[in-house]
Specification:
The complex is a heterodimer.
Chain A (H helix, E strand, L loop, with lengths): L12 E10 L2 E7 L3 H7 L4 E4 L6 E3 L11 E4 L7 E5 L10 E4 L13 H4 L8 H5 L6 H13 L13 E14 L3 H12 L4 E4 L17 E3 L2 E2 H12 L5 E4 L2 E7 L3 E7 L6 H4 L3 E15 L3 E3 L12 E3 H9 L8 E6 L3 H11 L3 E6 L7 H9 L3 E3 L1 E7 L6 E7 L6 E9 L2 E5 L2 E3 L2 H5 L4 E4 L4 E4 L6 E3 L9 H15 L12 E3 L23 E3 L4 E2 H9 L5 H8 L12 H12 L3 H4 L13 H5 L16 H6 L3 E5 L2 E6 L7 H14 L2 E4 L4 E6 L3 H8 L12 E7 L5 E11 L2 E6 L4 H15 L6 E4 L4 E7 L3 H8 L14 E7 L2 E7 L7 E7 L3 H12 L5 E2 L2 H10 L48 E8 L11 E3 L9 E11 L4 E9 L8 E5 L4 E7 L14
Helix pairs in contact in A: 5-6, 5-12, 8-9, 9-10, 13-14, 13-15, 19-24, 22-23
Chain B lengths: L2 E4 L3 E4 L4 E5 L13 H9 L7 E7 L7 E7 L4 E7 L8
Antiparallel strand pairs in B: 1-2, 3-4, 4-5, 5-6
The chains are: A alpha+beta, B mainly beta.
């Protein structure tokens, strides 16, 4: 046991040694230690370097507010994690931690030169300096700034840990397991309410759990003893769940909260393996009780940042909870009574200490107790400076003037190895304000406290600005009874004896004889902003607290200003001569403490990142070496390379085969909507641009669907299966949206229509067989089916059976070839496909993918919604006026087709393009211009589809061009990076204009 | 993230729903008889009130039904929920 471990406590298990490494050096601590307490027990105060000036910094606190002691954990490229607070990290066997922000090492850091040149780098230095010359930004300034900026290192490999999400509902959620939280949870749970109590620490009890002072007694016992009994009692209540190591990250509206539970961060490397590391709790609570306590404030004076300077109550916790003393000769500098508790605790363990108090005196019981013990107290004194580079070695005091504005008398220099500071307490109002609550300023204690809010939440205890034991217990019990509408009498006879603070004196920026410009009075320790910076910002005209914050970066570090915000506000108010309450505060945003990305995404990583949809024929495609393309969530075969073919070669071969003999495509992914009801025909009339009433049973029709603004939305073939029964197909990507849109109209605009829509996309698999030999193949599969043009013409369908399984065969074509689409229940899809392949073998049936499908339809000038259209194309723009019914009174989008904008002649219109060099393939998306000589060059449009057609043996393209309809024969230019490509506007149909192949 | 009381399914998390904008904008019965301006009024013009607003919502990851919601956009408080075709509650 090191000589700094001065006291045995029940929270440190001294039978279990834990060894760990810090900056490559081996240390050990005990089970129950945090990295901070273990390092302090080893006499290590210097933990890192500050962000801007690279000043040596040490552990300052014992919790989530820690600004200085942040480290990099693990040296592994996948597990390493920056900015971990040593004050929160529990040590485990095998832990490796490193200091951040220093090079070559924490003891000798080159960046320390910034401290010497600090007069040259004031607030807003970056904004002021790196303005000019403009050309320097990209090549000089940015790389330089990037090299020196940033805290810690990101992992470079994927996170191997497992994370989890969990949804829970509770009647009552209590945030914070300190004195008031425990009382609240007990009352709630005993009133038969399902209650959840969360606390970010390993053990419950807050700061009361180590309070063993004769001036603080509940029912005649030390407050810590009494609270231990309460904790023991609540552990037995059935409908109370207690989650420790769990911190609330965000408090959203409707009492929806996110909490991060640490499950394995404290376990040894061996024990962490294969376990869930952290879990994100998504909590809905009917009522929320916020009992988040308060954070001790520092004091702002010259050189208040040296290693060895800690918050006074943290010194107390390290001593009484962890058994570690932070020094052997300690000065406590305070403006309130809480440092006296620390002083008495230290005294009782034989640690030399004295108190410097801003106040003129203190008449409270605890102050008298300290005086009676003989602890030296300098009332009405102020620390004006500290000394010691890597660790504090002395402080300088002076007496305060009566008004507190200046120092008087002689300097007193005192040696010490640790300085505890306490500037009072700041209620942790983050949860309240995150949920939308407002704040009131309480002048007595110079604190912001929650304004009452009517959304089923309440703040109790120190976070509500109640600081002494008696008030906390009284008010908590009362408020909870009213809040939960119950009448709990458990604490009616609880007797509290506690020291009450009587004198208060707060000075945000302590006076000094040295001019402010020559001091380093830190406000935000992590971002290195000082009182001088705040004053400079005000001098330069900044007034709003939000602006001062951003200009000086105060409160913008990873600790989000938990220690600094109040001082920044106080100094602004004092300097500007306004009352503090009128300034408002900066916004407290989630998360309260940083969350890992792993926790946020949970299980949704890798193959669970997004749903993958595969057709029933997928395995066949894989076995036949298909390359796949993502279409929405679907995996579709893109092309099937043979013997090392390139994509181009494969697509050329597939395209040729489909036109010369036979091809087969898996078309299962097309959206399919089953439409039934007596008004089904009328419904189709209203949603498609063309007429549907006269479509006879057994026939198919192509339809174009518009948005109400007249722009093409989707297209597809719909088949009339029976009098009141249709099967609509949609584009693969548009299926869900089309169904949503149709439902919207049915439910909200036309509720009188008797129509029912059902998505059947996944219910049927579709094999599309095309080519001049397709009829022979279909005949082999369905010998009974009459395939004659009279009985089974183009755009019609037949019900039939394949081995007793019902099939629908449609004679429809997206390639321009004679073509049949067979629909079968999905589970038989693969077997149908295999039958087609074997029946087609003698005709060299060639499976083709989406790329060939696109090429074949482009040869025919068929559009693909979403490729040749982009939400700004009307049917007329696509030269598809033929599909817009002139007779129908109304359909979705009709009125928009003759708005002044949609009838403009110079809209972008779909045209064909032929390159002057037939071998030249255009790039899709390439810009089209008339000529490149007149500048600025006028852009006429762009290429939407482009292929080399093996069937025409030339390059073809579709494009949208301004006034393109009337441009046939016009020469245009496509400027590319290295050359200009000359093209001629053509018809959109490149092949078989007469549709002879459909009936080949 | 608020809770919406779907009139068909009960209270569910907001992420099961999608918003459909302002409610009670009726599609004109005779669009062809409207001027460009009148049609544009229906097509494009939507209010974006700070305060109590009547909105359409769809339980898109649930029963897929559309319904109306009266929501205060300044604090997300939902005052009432009612089915399509039902009369809006008086403020």
């Amino acid at each position: 046991m090191s000589d700094l471990r001065v006291h045995k406590t029940k929270y440190i298990n001294e039978t279990k040694r834990v060894s760990f490494k810090y900056d490559g050096k081996n240390y050990f601590g005990y089970e129950g230690d945090t990295l901070a307490s273990a390092l302090l027990a080893n006499g290590v105060h210097l933990i890192g370097r500050s962000f801007k000036y690279h000043r040596p910094r040490g552990i300052m606190s014992c919790g989530s507010e820690e600004p200085n002691a942040i480290c990099q954990i693990s040296a592994k490229n996948d597990l390493t994690e920056p900015n971990v607070r040593a004050t929160e990290l529990e040590i485990y066997d095998g832990l490796e931690a490193f200091s951040q922000n220093c090079w070559p090492n924490v003891k000798f850091d080159i960046g320390g030169i910034n401290n010497l040149i600090s007069p040259l780098i004031p607030a807003g230095f970056y904004y002021k300096t790196f303005m000019w010359p403009k050309s320097f930004w990209k090549k000089v300034y940015e790389p330089l700034i990037r090299m020196s900026a940033g805290l810690g290192k990101s992992p470079t490999e994927p996170d191997p840990d497992i994370y989890d999400h969990k949804y829970v509902h509770y009647d009552v959620l209590v945030i914070g397991g300190g004195l008031s939280g425990i009382i609240s949870a007990k009352i709630a749970a005993k009133s038969n309410l399902k209650t959840l109590l969360v606390d970010d620490k390993k053990t419950l009890g807050g700061s009361t759990i180590y309070q063993s002072n004769d001036s603080f007694k509940i029912d005649d016992q030390h407050s810590s003893k009494w609270l231990e009994k309460e904790i023991n009692e609540i552990s037995k209540i059935e409908n109370l769940t207690v989650k420790t190591r769990t911190s609330i990250a965000a408090y959203h509206g409707y009492n929806y909260l996110l909490a991060r539970e640490n499950l394995t961060d404290h376990l040894s490397i061996k024990d962490k393996k294969d376990k869930i590391r952290q879990r994100l709790w998504k909590i809905r609570a009917k009522k929320v009780i916020v009992a988040t306590g308060a954070i001790e404030r520092p004091l702002v004076f010259n050189n208040n940042d040296r290693p060895g300077i800690l918050l006074s109550n943290s010194i107390n916790k390290y001593l009484d909870y962890y058994g570690v003393t932070c020094g052997k000769n300690i000065v406590l500098f305070t403006n309130n009574d809480s440092a006296y508790e620390t002083a008495i605790s230290l005294y009782k363990k034989g640690i030399k200490n004295l108190i410097v108090d801003l106040r003129k005196n203190s008449q409270s019981e605890i102050a008298k107790q300290a005086q009676n013990l003989g602890i030296k107290i300098y009332f009405n004194h102020v620390v004006t400076n500290t000394f010691g580079y890597r660790r504090i070695n002395s402080v300088e005091l002076m007496e305060l003037s009566d008004d507190g504005n200046t120092t008087i008398g002689n300097k007193i220099k005192l040696n010490c190895d640790c300085l505890g500071i306490s500037g009072g307490w700041t209620p942790t109002v983050h949860m309240h304000t995150q949920s939308g609550g407002k704040l009131d300023f309480k002048n007595d204690d110079q604190v912001f406290i929650p304004k009452e809010i009517d959304n089923d939440q309440i703040s109790v205890g120190a976070c509500n600005g109640d600081f002494d034991l008696e008030t906390i217990i009284d008010k908590t019990v009362n408020k909870i009874n009213i809040f939960l509408e119950i009448n709990n009498q458990d604490y009616k006879n609880t007797k509290v004896d506690c020291s009450i603070e009587k004198e208060k004196r707060n000075i945000w920026l302590l006076p000094n004889k040295i001019p402010l410009g020559k001091t380093k009075c830190f406000i935000d320790f992590q971002n290195d902003s000082t009182a001088k910076d705040i004053k400079l910002a005000l001098k330069e005209g900044f007034r709003s607290i939000e602006h001062v914050k951003r200009y000086t970066t105060t409160g913008m570090a990873t600790d989000q200003g938990k220690l600094s915000n109040m001082h920044a506000l106080g100094i602004i108010a004092d300097t500007a001569g306004v009352k503090m309450g009128t300034l408002g505060t900066t916004t407290f945003r989630p998360p309260f403490t940083p969350l890992t990305f792993g926790t946020i995404v949970g299980r949704n990583v890798g193959k669970f990142f997004e749903v993958v949809r595969k057709t029933s024929i997928h395995d066949w495609h894989v076995d036949n070496k298909a390359k796949f393309e993502n279409v929405g969530q679907w995996k579709r075969p893109w092309y099937y390379p043979k013997n090392g073919e390139t994509k181009h070669d494969a697509v050329q071969r597939e395209s040729k085969a489909a036109r010369d003999s036979a091809g087969i495509l898996d078309a299962s992914t097309l959206g399919k909507i089953d439409i039934q009801g007596t008004d089904a025909s009328e419904f189709l009339n209203r949603v498609y641009t063309n007429a549907w009433s006269k479509l006879s049973i057994g026939k198919c029709r192509y339809g174009l669907m518009l948005n109400e603004d007249g722009m093409v939305y989707d297209d597809g073939v719909t088949t009339r299966l029976a009098e009141n029964h249709y099967l609509m197909t949609t584009t693969t990507g548009g299926a869900a949206n089309v169904l949503g849109k149709l439902e919207d109209y049915l439910q909200t605009e036309w509720p009188e229509l008797d129509v029912y829509l059902t998505s059947v996309t996944d219910h049927y698999s579709t094999a599309s067989v095309c080519g001049p030999n397709s009829k022979k193949i279909i005949n082999k599969i369905f010998p009974e089916l009459d395939l004659s043009d009279e009985n089974f013409p183009h755009m019609s369908f037949k019900n039939t059976k394949l081995d007793n399984i019902n099939c629908r065969v449609m004679r429809i074509s997206f390639t321009g070839e004679l073509s049949y689409e067979i629909n079968i229940e999905s589970k038989y899809g693969k077997s149908l496909w295999e039958k087609c392949i074997s029946a087609g073998q003698e005709f060299n049936i060639t499976p083709y993918g989406t790329e060939t499908m696109h090429l074949l339809r482009a040869e025919k000038g068929f559009i693909i919604v979403g490729q040749d259209t982009d939400g700004t194309m009307t049917p007329s723009d696509l030269q598809m006026d033929w599909i817009v019914s002139k007779k129908k009174y109304d359909f979705i989008g009709k009125r928009s087709l003759y708005r002044s904008d949609t009838i403009r002649e110079d809209r972008k219109q779909l045209v064909g393009l032929l390159t002057d060099d037939p071998k030249e393939i255009l790039e899709e998306g390439a810009q089209i211009v008339l000529d490149t000589n007149t500048k600025p060059i006028d852009m006429l449009g762009h290429v939407t589809s482009s292929y080399f057609s093996p069937n025409l043996n030339k390059s073809i393209a579709l494009a949208v061009v301004r006034s393109g309809k009337n441009m046939k024969g016009q020469k245009l230019t496509i400027p590319m990076e290295n050359k200009n490509i000359n093209v001629t506007v053509s018809d959109t149909i490149f092949l078989d204009k007469e549709n002879k192949r459909l009936n080949a | 993230m608020f809770l919406i009381n779907c009139p068909f399914c009960g209270e569910r998390d907001q992420n099961e729903f999608s918003s459909g904008g302002e409610a009670h904008i009726v599609r004109p019965k005779q669009p062809t008889e409207l001027s460009d301006d009148q049609w544009a009024e229906f097509l494009f013009m939507r209010k974006n009130i700070k305060g109590v607003q009547f909105e359409r919502w769809n339980h898109s990851h649930g029963c897929r039904k559309w319904f109306n919601v009266v929501r205060d956009t300044s604090n997300d408080k939902i005052h009432s929920v009612y089915k399509m075709g039902e009369k809006p509650p008086v403020k």
